[in-house]
Write a structure and sequence with these properties.
The longest helix is centred in the N-terminal third of the chain and has 18 residues. With about 280 residues, the chain is of the alpha+beta class. The chain folds into two domains: about 130 residues, Carboxypeptidase-like, regulatory domain (Immunoglobulin-like), CATH 2.60.40.1120; about 130 residues, TonB-dependent receptor, plug domain (Ferric Hydroxamate Uptake Protein, Chain A, domain 1, Beta Complex). The strands form four sheets. The protein has a five-stranded mixed beta sheet.
Length: about 280
Amino acid sequence: MSDDVAFEGQITLSGEPGTKLSLLSALRRLVVFLIGVCIAIGISLESLAGQTLRGRILDSETRDPVRLAYVGLLTEGESMAVATLADTAGFFEITAPDPGPYFVYISRSGYETIMDGVFELGYKAELDVRIGMKPLPIELDEVLVEIERGTADFLERNGFYERAITGRGVLMLREDIERFAINRVSDVMRRIPLLDIDESRPLAGPESFRNPEIRVVRNGQYCSPTLYIDRNLVNSGSLGSVRPDDYVSVVEIDAIEVYARSSEVPVGFDEINNCGVILIWTRTR
C-alpha cells in the first residue's frame, strides 16, 4: 500500500508469558479471546474485512481537509462498482455492493489521483481509513485571474453540496466529467454503477444516427429514468429512450447527479417512471 493511505485502529494481541495450559484449555481460551476481539471491534465472524469503507481525506502537506473528492471502489477488472463524494470536511462513507476484492480510487482536481489495493472487503463489517492526497505542483506565468462565483452559487442554491454530503447516489463535478467524457455525456454514464448504455441502432435510416440510450438496471431488468436539466423536467422516462446527448453536450455541463435507487431520490425531484432520477446542471443556463 502507498504512503498516501494510512489505516488506523490496528489491534495488537499479546499473551501472558509463563502461563502453562493444556493444549485443549489453550485452544478454548484462544477461541473465546478471538470472539471477544471480534465483538470489541465490530467485525462479524463471517469476515474480518470491511464491506463499508469510511474515513477522511486530507491534504498530505497542510493536513487540511480535501473537500468533495471523488471516491470509488473498483473491481479487479477496474470497473467502477460504486462511487461517492467526500463532504466539505473530507469525510466519506462508501459500501461495497458485494463482498470481494476492490481497489480504492480517489481523485480531486489539484491532487495526484490515488488508486490503491487490492482490499478484501467482506460481509457487514467496517473499515476506517485516513488518506493523504499529494497536491500537484502548479507552475503559472504571470496571469490575471478572475474568479467566477456563479457556478458554485448555482449548485449551492440548488442543494448540490448538501446532497453530496449525504453519500446517496453518484455525484460528479466538472473536473470528473471532463476526465471520463470522451465525446458524449453517455461516456460519463458508463462509469456509474446500475446504469446501462444501449447503443443498438439500425444500420440505416434516421434511427442510425440516434444517441445512446441511458437505462437503469433493476433486478436484472432495464427501465428508463427521469431526466432533469437545471431543475427542468425534460424526459419522464415513461416512453423510454432517455438520451441525455439529445439535450446537452459535455462542454455545457457543470455537474451530474445519478440516483438509480428509489430510496436515494432527493426531495423535489419526482421519480415519475419509478426508475430513478438523473440531474444535469449546466453552465449555460
